Amino acid sequence: MRAVAFAELGATPQVHDVAVPEPAEGEVRVRVHAASVNGFDLAVAAGYLDGMMEHRFPVVLGKDFAGVVDAIGAGVEGYAVGDRVFGVVTKTFLGDGSFGEYVTVPVAVGLARLPRSVSFVDGAALGLAGTAAVDAVDAARLEAGQVVLVAGATGGVGNQVVQLAVRSGATVIATTHTGPETALVTSLGAAEVVDYRQDVAAQVLAAHPGGVDAVIHLAGDAATLLPALRAGGRFASTLVMSPDQLPTDAATVVPVFATPTTATLDRLADDSAQRHTTVTIERTYPLDQVGRAFADFGAGTVGKLVITID
Prior knowledge:
Largest sheet: 7 strands, mixed
Shape: globular
Helix content: 25-40%
Radius of gyration: 20 Å
CATH architecture of the largest domain: Alpha-Beta Complex
Number of strands: 18
Number of domains: 2
Distance between the termini: 12 Å
Number of helices: 9
Structural class: alpha/beta
Strand content: 25-35%
């Protein structure tokens, strides 16, 4: 099969012909129709995970996927050949990624059915970003009438966070800089915006002198955002690994570790099918243009970048 992979550390990822994977016990094989780009993929390609995760060469890149089940491993129940699915590759090693024509994935975590009303392109953009968003909003414990600052609102995770926070009844302040970024987040429901290239906390406090009820931290320096939070508020972060990294007696700091359980993925799929949330796709690329997609991702995006695989 055709897949974007590298044969050794330091090699540039490119399209290779690799063996079609066979599903192990508890796995299904998915014929991939689309896969989205995440920061994790760039980190693997750059060798940043050397020594942190096992590499099984050739390492096929890619975490998110959407496609159709085409083979069933031993012991699998609840899925059949032909099922439309999406999710996140959750294996403990690097090698079996989704930037290829096929991927094998365990059914226990990282896999769910994709409703027919949700396209493969949209489904491919939901898994990792959507999971992080759901877990972050849940960690913030938002309530109707509260005010929340979303730092990193213009990215794939942030787009979902803004919409989920609005649905909770909270008033959303989103970080933006350009006109198109502002237009996007306000179209998703953000009531206010602040410029992330200026002092974000100062801008927030100018409009909300007592501070906001919650901060959802997806980008930027956590310490500079903490002053925007009221006493007793919650600071949910996908970038802070431990509360010790952001010491404070005035608020609760909650690290967010995105876990793509079936329940979470089902929730994402239902929200998308019901149009409670939408996915912003900035651009799509064929498989042989993953390098360009990586460069565009590194330059900054408004929404998600998706690889389509015929």
